[in-house]
Amino acid sequence: MTGATAARRALLGTFAALTLALPVASSVAAAQAPARLAVQERRTPRRIIFTLVGLAVSGAAAGAFALAGDDRNGTGACSDRACVISVTVVGGALIGYMIGREFDELHSIRYRGGAPLTIPSLASDADQSALVVAARDTLVAVGGGNGVRLYASTPTGGLRPLARRGGGVRGIGALDVVPGPGALAVGSPAGFYLFPPATGPGVLLREGSAQAVTSDANRTYFAVGSRVETAPIGADTTRTWPGVDVGSTVFALAVDAGRGIVWAGGDSVLVALRPEGDSLAIVGRVAVDGIVRRLDVEGTRVGVALAERGLAMIDARDAAAPTVAWTWSGTRFVYDVALLPSGRAMVGAGSDGLYLLDAGGSEARVLGLSRDLGFVAAIVARGRYAYVLDRTGDQLRRIDISEF
Questions:
Q1: Residues 163/171, Cβ–Cβ less than 8 Å
Q2: What is the mean pLDDT of residues 152-171?
Q3: Which stretches of 316-384 are assigned E, i.e. beta strand?
Q4: What does the alpha-carbon distance between residue 193 and residue 207 come to, in Å, rounded to a whole number?
Q5: How far apart are CA 326 and CA 316, in angstroms?
Q6: Distance (Å, rounded) from C-alpha 186 to C-alpha 192?
Q7: Which range has highest mean pLDDT (29-38, 306-315, 363-372)?
Q8: Is 18 helix (H, G, I), strand (E, B) or coil?
Q9: pTM above 0.85, yes or no
Q10: Lowest pLDDT segment from 181-190, 205-214, 269-278
């Protein structure tokens, strides 16, 4: 075997090693994540890194060829030393660039321009059928096909299971913890129920499928079809309650207790309601692009989860004339949203994980994505903590959001 032949074989082996080594190096680099949630990831594009690696490897191979070979080796359009060295170096750089570009595109799709986040959480087991989560003070409730499971959430005691309520109510799809007494407002296909938080039988207040519920310190609000009705906390009679028809099936309710407004989300519409006497009156409405799945209120903003249509942020400074501030469709499906006092939003995106957005400006900006919290189907933020329902691990997760 001549020195030139050996050098050519070494060159081919170097290219093979290059194509295998670059993806491995990429997986190691991609695993690194920023430690702080508030800091955007400073990520060097992989196309730059792997172009340099390709140049280094191919340059070393070209140097070995130059030392071992003659000025001309064999026949062909590129058989002299200068041509072989040039093609080797350019080819190595091109392979590195192409591999790096592929990983940059995958990263962009995976994280939508944000940083990969590692969010610590405290977990407790939840039922497989769990669909909704609600919280108030230190009481957390998770509802689904097997009733409601209650937890105590304290800084020192963690997340501790307490009891089960509403075991005879199937298909719970709407849930709230009433301020003050901590009663459970439960919506199901069979009707709307109120349960004492600890012991005692529940009360059926309204027959018919109750798709959404919410409450304030004095009253409960629930949706049956296109009607939003209201009943006092101490009610104990099954009947049709005072309310108003909003013209569209209501799937989500949320209370702005500070301004005395109830928000109702339906098919392509968000409606502002105000209590009047023992009933409700329509104050204003705004069209949204999709079916409202969940709502959350923070100050004069209303976050609207629109399923496959993404997230809409509503400017509700004037409840009589709310407007769409911006929309965001950076994920496949938005299951839920929790607005934080800091101006950020936590977005439950199902199998994509949990997004953290800067939601306080004129448009949404992705700060990061955590893919470590499982299938995020529901989320609620109360005080220091956010509570996430992970359908992958059938767990309730508590996140400390004091630094978000």
A1: no
A2: 92
A3: 323-328, 336-339, 344-348, 354-358, 365-370, 376-382
A4: 9
A5: 12
A6: 6
A7: 306-315
A8: helix
A9: no
A10: 181-190
SS3 177: strand
Task: Write the pLDDT tens digit of every residue in 255-302.
Answer: 999 999 999 999 999 999 999 999 999 999 999 999 999 999 999 999
384-404 pLDDT, tens digit each: 999 999 999 899 999 999 888
Distance CA 310, CA 114 (A): 17
Helix 81-111 with 46-68: angle, nearest 10 deg: 160
Distance between CA atoms of 272 and 283, rounded to whole angstroms? 5
Round to whole Å and give the CA distance between 226 and 331: 29
Strand-pair category, 115-116 with 365-370 = parallel
The mean per-residue pLDDT over the stretch 57-65 comes to 72
Which amino acid, 310? Answer: G
Both tokens of 151, joined, read 């937890």
Buried b (16+ CB within 10 A) or exposed e, 259-286: eebbbbbbeebbbbbbbeeeebebbbbb
> Do 148 and 172 touch, CB atoms closer than 8 A?
yes
pLDDT tier at 1, thresholds 50, 70, 90: very low
The whole-angstrom separation of Cα 284 and Cα 130 is 33
Q: DSSP letter at 334?
A: B
**Mean pLDDT to the nearest integer, 352-379:** 94
Inter-residue contact 338 to 311 (CB < 8 Å): no
The interaxial angle of helices 46-68 and 3-30, nearest 10 deg, is 160
Structure tokens, 105: 């595109």
Q: pLDDT at position 28, please?
A: 39
The C-alpha torsion from 289 through 293 and 298 to 299, rounded to 10°, is 50
